[in-house]
Amino acid sequence: MNNTTLYRFNEWLDILIYVAHAKREVGANELMDQVTNYERSRLNYILRMMVQGGYLERTSYNTGHMYLPTQKTKQIFGVHA
Fold this sequence. Notes:
Helix content is 56%, strand content 17%.
């Protein structure tokens, strides 16, 4: 595995860990501020991939999309409701 791939994996993992342990819905702005250095368009793409993969659940609000961990993600990281 090359360094770029490992870096991406770690950033994706950081996003999932952050959302899994949050006690509320998390938005892209918060993830950009607290977790990752991705630009907004790249982060939105990653979040869509995580939703499609069944790791995050997206909820829509007038202010934008918010994300919650799925049961699959909670199980992976040992998070209990």
